[in-house]
Design a protein that fits this description.
By secondary structure, the chain is mostly helical. The chain is built from three helices and no strands.
């Protein structure tokens, strides 16, 4: 059986509070879209950072797409 590890993180605590509410289907869809946008933006920011650190260019991307 899985055991709960305490203390909970701030995200876990906030999600437990959210779970205590009964959202409409429309609100639930909005929440899912908000979370998806949050993680997408975070991923793009990290990818851009890596891109800049490595000094990559659009030509590099075109070469990858062409399989070179």
């Amino acid at each position: 059986m899985n055991q709960l590890t305490l203390p909970l993180s701030n995200v876990q605590t906030e999600l437990l509070r959210l779970y205590s509410t009964n959202l409409s289907e429309a609100d639930l869809l909005d929440l899912k879209q908000t979370l998806a946008k949050f993680y997408a933006e975070r991923s793009i920011k990290l990818a851009n950072q890596i891109w800049d650190e490595r000094g990559l260019t659009n030509d590099d991307m075109l070469k990858w797409l062409e399989g070179n």
